[in-house]
Amino acid sequence: MSNFKPLARSFSAVEGQPTSPLGPTEKFFNDPLHGYIAFDSFCTGVIDTPQFQRLRYLKQLGASYFVFPGASHNRFEHCLGVGYLAGSLVRRFQESQPELGITKRDVRCVQVAGLCHDLGHGPFSHLFDSTIVPRLSPGLGWTHEQGSQMMFEYMVDDNYLDLDQQDVRFINDLIVGKPTSQGAQSQEKLFLFDIVANQRNGVDVDKFDYLGRDCYNVGLKSSCDSSRLMIASRVIDDQICYHHKEVYNLYDMFHTRFSLFKRIYTHRVESAIELMIVDALVQAEPELQLIEALRDPERYLNLTDDILRDIERSRGPELASARALLKRLRRRDLYRFVDEVVLPGHLRGTLTKRHINAEAVVAHQGDNAHLTVDDVTLKWYNLNFGKNDENPVDSIRFYSKFDDRRCFAVPQDA
């Protein structure tokens, strides 16, 4: 007879949720970047919806996974991280600066915005709204932020979340990083709009999470310490400012972003794979009707990276050309990379897309190349530190330990 006794385990009122001395209604996730992170029952209700769970099937770095085996992380864990950081930062301001008047509702809305800011990403993330949608519907101007707002409203209605229309509008404004709706909640405490999507200078918890998470997964070293930045921040003149000693930490952050773009996000093999994915989806559009899904949240809910497998599993002639192209991708019979050129700054006004294009390349081909315009694709990248030709740190304000009520800029040559 066995003496085995099952271990006792207590559960809270929420089914399947273990009790904890840190809070009986909190749910914990063991995140590889931030460690154990907790969410209250309301945020757990947001996470446990079909709209949020969809993010498990969207690779954070899109086609990078075809090149970097470690880039297997998804939008799901990134959004958990951003929600956690957003809640941590706004609570820190609430406790350390009570004069700001941050309410429990403010905290909830900021954290939900952090969780839901990427709900609208399509298959292969930024590739979808930057390339696929413009190819399918030129001039539409659709962005994943618009998709996030659509999917968030659908989430609230479909799951009967306890948010009124004012909260929904406020959270949607927090997602895009600026007040667009009317009402007192969107016109005061403007610093709240800097937490998830900072339109002033790009320093926000979204960047804190994806820079750390992407570096961690692809094996790229980074000296930027976002946890230190959060501790060294405070609100002055209705904007988030940082201790002046953090100026070099912020330069490291923008340098890390540049390095990721240069070495990972615009990798030449990844670019070839992206072009093949785009061509396959464009060929499959008459059957898939992806553009129609942009206006229909119920259809968009099922639009994930699995779309490639859907094409490959098809048997009809309608998707035959797309299937053939994806078969080439699986066999690594990729589009051929030819060359890249770094355009000097003084030539940017002289050599433009009007001068360098597929027609110009074909016109200068060799005698035996036999290239046509359809054989040539050019990709233009504008790699910078986040604000085109400007120094992004010039837009950040700092404070001194001798006077934490006044903010100032730190010039680059200081």
Topology diagram in text:
Layout: E1 27-31, E2 35-39, H1 41-47, H2 50-53, H3 75-96, H4 104-116, H5 126-136, H6 144-159, H7 165-176, H8 184-187, H9 193-196, H10 205-218, H11 226-231, E3 233-236, E4 239-243, H12 247-265, H13 268-288, H14 290-293, H15 297-300, H16 307-313, H17 320-330, H18 358-363, E5 398-400, E6 403-408
Parallel strand pairs: 4-5
Antiparallel strand pairs: 1-2, 3-4, 5-6
Helix pairs in contact: 3-4, 3-10, 4-7, 5-13, 6-7, 10-12, 13-17
Domain HD/PDEase: 71-220
GO molecular function, one term: dGTPase activity
Region (Disordered): 1-24
Q: How would you characterize this protein structure?
A:
With 414 residues, the chain is α+β, with helices and mostly antiparallel strands. The protein has a domain at 27-268: Orthogonal Bundle (Hypothetical protein af1432), CATH 1.10.3210.10. Helices cover 45% and strands 7% of the residues. It has 18 helices and 6 strands. It has helices at residues 41-47, 50-53, 75-96, 104-116, 126-136, 144-159, 165-176, 184-187, 193-196, 205-218, 226-231, 247-265, 268-288, 290-293, 297-300, 307-313, 320-330, 358-363, and strands at residues 27-31, 35-39, 233-236, 239-243, 398-400, 403-408. The strands form 2 sheets. A 4-stranded mixed β-sheet has the order 3-4-5-6. The chain has a two-stranded antiparallel ribbon with strand order 1-2. A hairpin with a 3-residue loop joins strand 1 (27-31) and strand 2. Helix 13 (268-288) runs antiparallel to helix 17. The longest helix is centred in the N-terminal third of the chain and has 22 residues, at 75-96. The N and C termini lie far apart (77 Å).
